[in-house]
Every structure is written in C-alpha cells, then in structure tokens.
C-alpha cells in the first residue's frame, strides 16, 4: 500500500475510533489488492453498532476535507471527499458487522448465489486491512472467512448464472437481440453489461476465486485464474466493440464467448 494513502487512512480511522458505536474500521479496494496507483482513492469501511449522524461525521472532517459529499445513499451509505492536504480522494462506506456476517453466511454456509458478483463481500473481507477493531470482531470474522472455496457454492453460482446467459427464453442473448431489432441501444448496453456480470461470476466460480468486483475483470482473470475460456479477453473486447454499434452480428460474439465457456465447463465436469 502506498505510504501517503496508508498514513491518511490510519488518521481517518483514528478519528472514527473515538466514537463509541464504531466497532471496526478497515481499508480495502485497490490499495490492499495490489494494483493501486497515485490517483487511487482510499476505500474505507466503518462498521458501527448504530448510525453515526451525518452532523457528527461532518464535524470530524470539516477542517481537513474539501469537496465533501455527505451521506450519499446511492449504493451503500457513505461520505466522499478530497483530503485538502494531500489531494487524495476518500470514500467511506458505513456497514454493520451483523449484516456482513449474514451475507457471508449465505455464501459460505448456505451456498446461496446471486445474479452476478456473488462473492464480492467475501473477497472484500479477505483483502481488508484492519485499521481499528475495538473488540476483535472483524478479525474473528475475517479468520472465519478464510476457508477453501465451497464446491456447493461453485455449483450454485453456475446454476444461477449460466442458464440466463443464452439458454433460457429470457436469457441475455435473447434480450440483447430483441433490443437490437428494435434499435434500442440503451437496452443493448444494459443487457450486455448484465451478461458480462453473470459471465464473470461463472469464471471466478470455476476457478474458486472470490469475485474481485467490477474493475479490471479481464486482466484479473488473466492474473488470478488458471482456468480460462480460450480467447476470452479478445472475445470480450469484440463483444463490447460490437455493442457500441449493434447489429445482428452481435449474436456471433456472444456465441463465441459461450461456446468456449461450454468447453471449459465440460473440461471441469461442471456441466
């Protein structure tokens, strides 16, 4: 992790640690995954037993922050700002350890899959660096989460995501081609993104690799996954280029991706 980013992350964590409802503060994302650059932001996760009022959060960082956005609710509750002294962007997300435990239990003990990004929270916990942990709860959860990738979870992810790629009547392939025929390019883009979300969920499951999130996926597959469909990166790029000016040929790019995925699934006795 880059020194300036780590120093700032710890300073922010120390301020949150003074609040009695805060149980833990961790940093994750590109800084702990090993592919950060000087422009990377700091992804901080604050785990609290009860809500921290926006006014309290504002007082903690009003002096040191510039361009602060307080209490964003678009995805997870969070605050974003740029540190005035260093220019580093900070993204703070507020979570509950109880809720996080429930999500991981669904994955790791009940083997429940999602449509895309099934194991992102698991990967986030595994790669988190602890900056503050009042009673050791996050450490204990992290240690509990360190385990082999469950085979039933592999099967569940494939069962949940594979059929909707091209097999079912409502599969993404069919939805994309209907959108092409009606010249609905916004829908094409939306469905291609959904197709790739489920496609990569299957790839990471085949390799028993917790899903690293939405960024740099072809590169991360190349780096982390030994088992890959032939020509995957080139075919993904071809699909995305075709989606920019979609016509009937887009189906050929999807079939090429799926045919090679089928070969891999058969090789691994997963289909």
Describe what this molecule looks like in 3D:
It is a single chain. With 271 residues, the protein is α+β, with helices and mostly antiparallel strands. It folds into two domains: 3-145, Beta Polymerase, domain 2 (2-Layer Sandwich), CATH 3.30.460; 151-267. It has helices at residues 3-17, 30-33, 54-61, 97-108, 120-126, 137-145, 151-161, 163-166, 172-181, 185-206, 217-224, 232-244, 250-267, and strands at 22-28, 42-48, 65-72, 78-83, 89-95, 129-133. Strands 3-4-5-2-1-6 form a six-stranded mixed beta sheet, sandwiched between helices. A hairpin with a 5-residue loop joins strand 4 (78-83) and strand 5. The chain is globular. The protein starts with a helix and ends with a helix. 34% of the residues are buried.
């Amino acid at each position: 992790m880059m020194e300036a980013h780590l120093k700032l992350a710890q300073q922010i964590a120390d301020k949150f640690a003074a609040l009695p409802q805060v149980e833990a503060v961790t940093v994750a994302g590109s800084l702990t995954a090993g592919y950060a650059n000087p422009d990377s932001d700091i992804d901080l996760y604050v785990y609290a037993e009860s809500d921290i009022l926006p006014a309290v959060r504002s007082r903690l960082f009003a002096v040191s922050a510039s361009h602060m956005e307080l209490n964003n609710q678009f995805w997870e509750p969070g605050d974003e700002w740029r540190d005035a002294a260093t220019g580093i962007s900070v993204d703070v997300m507020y979570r509950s350890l109880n809720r996080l435990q429930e999500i991981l239990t669904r994955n790791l003990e009940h083997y429940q899959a999602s449509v895309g990004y099934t194991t992102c929270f698991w990967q986030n916990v595994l790669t988190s660096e602890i900056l503050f942990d009042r009673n050791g709860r996050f450490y204990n959860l992290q240690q509990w989460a360190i385990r082999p990738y469950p085979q039933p979870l592999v099967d569940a992810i494939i069962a949940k995501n594979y059929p909707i790629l091209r097999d079912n009547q409502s599969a993404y392939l069919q939805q994309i081609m209907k959108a092409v025929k009606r010249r609905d390019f916004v829908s094409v883009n939306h469905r291609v993104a959904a197709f790739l979300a489920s496609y990569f969920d299957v790839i990471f499951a085949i390799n028993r690799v917790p899903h690293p999130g939405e960024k740099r996926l072809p590169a991360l597959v190349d780096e982390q996954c030994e088992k890959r469909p032939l020509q995957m990166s080139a075919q993904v790029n071809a699909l995305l280029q075709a989606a920019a000016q979609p016509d009937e040929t887009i189906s050929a790019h999807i079939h090429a991706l799926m045919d090679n995925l089928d070969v891999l699934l058969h090789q691994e006795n997963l289909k």
